[in-house]
Amino acid sequence: MFAEAKANGDRQLIEFLVYLAMEAGYLEKVDELCNRYCLAGLPKVQEREASLLRQRFLKINELVVDDIIWVDELNGLGEATCHIEGSKVVGLDCEWKPNYVKGSKPNKVSILQIASDKKVFILDLIKLYEDVPDVLDNCLTRILQSPRILKLGYSFQCDVKQLAQSYGDLKCFKCYNMLLDIQNLFKDPRGGLSGLAEKILGAGLNKTRRNSNWEQRPLTQNQLEYAALDAAVLIELFYRVRDNSHTANSLVGNEKIEWKSHIVSHMDNPKKSRKESRHRKELNVEDN
Predict the structure, then answer these.
(1) 3-class DSSP state of 151
(2) What is the pLDDT, as a whole number, of residue 134?
(3) Cα 58 versus chain centre, distance
(4) How far apart are the C-alpha atoms of 4 and 142, rounded to whole Å?
(5) What is the DSSP letter of 6?
(6) For residue 70, what is the enclosing H or E element?
(7) CB half-sphere exposure, 224, CA atoms < 13 A
(8) Is residue 263 a contact partner of residue 157, using CB atoms and an 8 Å limit?
(9) Measured CA angle at 123 (ends 122, 125), to 5 deg
(10) Domain ranges of the chain
(11) Starting at the edge strand that comes first in sequence, how are the strands of the sheet with 89-96 ordered?
(12) CA-to-CA dists, residue 218 to 58, 173, 205, 222, 224, angstroms
């Protein structure tokens, strides 16, 4: 880490870095620094870790997810694409390594998570782009531009821009179809995805892995579960909204949530946009 190098072993500066990493939720870096510089006795670190242990967080095994599948080669990508194309609703999210150098460009997006009702596929974008860029482009185009698959995200339009900047020569990230941003369904988006999960599902998301190193391979089990949960929880939230639950209603003043009106697309071809509009009207993910 750049800041650690600048600290040059100064204990006071290293302790300050530990507290900054703790505030950012970068617990893996906290543990690494504490072990490297023998800082296990820092009281605020211990208090923060104890506080996190007391909090109630949603876990991936509480959702209907059978498998978390790592995808980093051709056959796995093909199998994932076939499964996703058979789904009516999927959740999308992505992760990249944080960059702490002021003024520098963000790091390339490392992974893309795509969740169906039963499975979460975690695509190693860095490796797939290096090995099979054309196949990756084709598969993700089939998913992201499909008018038959409802894609759920949370501020995913911003993620799409980051994806397009990371992989500028791929066409798949330049257009998307049938995207529903969950945060746009609610009048008060404060608290982010974790806050929304806590309000609707009764437990928030543990975001302490958000700033971890997403370029390391293999990812840790905690990283995999964190990444999978961020995509899978979108499907659970959507079904709660679609089913017009009392909890969801309370967040919008007991108004019926007209989720179909929030579906958006960014298409280069106007004929495709008209086709998407027709599919939206015919969408068989119906309200009860």
Answers:
(1) strand
(2) 98
(3) 15
(4) 43
(5) H
(6) strand 67-71
(7) 17
(8) no
(9) 145
(10) 2-54, 60-282
(11) 67-71, 119-124, 109-115, 89-96, 150-153, 176-181, 263-266
(12) 24, 25, 23, 11, 10
Tens of pLDDT, residues 267-285: 765 555 555 556 666 666 6
Location of structure tokens 């990371």: 166
Residues 152-180 have pLDDT tens digits of: 999 988 999 999 999 999 999 999 999 99
Backbone angles phi, psi at 121, to 5 degrees: -100, 130
Helix extents (H) in the chain: 2-7, 11-23, 27-36, 43-54, 74-85, 125-131, 133-144, 156-166, 192-201, 221-242, 246-250, 270-282
The architecture CATH gives domain 60-282: 2-Layer Sandwich (3.30)
Check: CB of residue 178 under 8 Å from CB of residue 146.
Answer: yes
- Per-residue pLDDT tens for 177-211? 999 999 888 866 667 899 899 989 989 898 877 77
